[in-house]
Every structure is written in C-alpha cells, then in structure tokens.
Amino acid sequence: MTGLRLKSLLPQGPLVEVTFKGEVISLPEGANLATALQEYGVEGFRQTPTRGVARSPFCMMGVCFDCLLEVDGVTRQSCMIEVRAGIDIRPARQSREGPYESL
C-alpha cells in the first residue's frame, strides 16, 4: 500500500508531565491514558504473575483488564482514565491470574 498513514487518535491539546515507571514523560492532557501510552511507545502494560506474559490494552472499554496499571497507588484500568498532570503510573501488582489465563 502506498501513501497509507494512520492519524493519531490523541487530542492535540497541551502536553502535561506524568511519571511512568519513575521517568517523567509528556502526554496530551485529557487523552485516554492507555491510548496515550501506546502512542508514546509503551508495549507491555503488565505481566501475568505466574507466566510473565506481557499484556497490553485489548478491548479499550474496561472489560478485559489487560490494561491494568497502578495510577497514583491504585490499580486501575488505564483505558478508563484521562491523562492529567502529575499522575504517577506504574505496572500493576497482581496476586493471581485471571480466569482466562489458563485457557
């Protein structure tokens, strides 16, 4: 295919600083956090606890839990959060596998 380009789905608003894994990065204010992190280049959001398999956002509507991150100390679905200045984002800590992991 020639000339095919994907347009960014992120708002073109002002960038704000957030902390991701201890590193300060800039993301568009008000953007969907999962989408903004993927656009930034983050590939694996978390790892499954027993197998260590990398997981990334899948459904983008809060159903699959593959986008779990710890945001300001609380494990949340990143696809359900808007980017705001100063948030602290880290990989989620999980104590067990979800029911779908054994399939």
TrEMBL record:
Highest taxon of source: Bacteria
InterPro entries: 2Fe-2S-bd_N (IPR042204), 2Fe-2S_ferredoxin-like_sf (IPR036010)
One function term, GO molecular function aspect: oxidoreductase activity
Gene3D superfamilies from the UniProt entry: 2Fe-2S iron-sulphur cluster binding domain, sarcosine oxidase, alpha subunit, N-terminal domain
Entry annotated with the keyword Metal-binding: no
UniProt keyword annotation of Oxidoreductase present: yes
Coiled coil: none
Keywords: Oxidoreductase
SUPFAM superfamilies: 2Fe-2S ferredoxin-like
Annotated protein name in UniProt: 2Fe-2S iron-sulfur cluster protein
Lineage: Bacteria, Pseudomonadati, Pseudomonadota, Alphaproteobacteria, Rhodobacterales
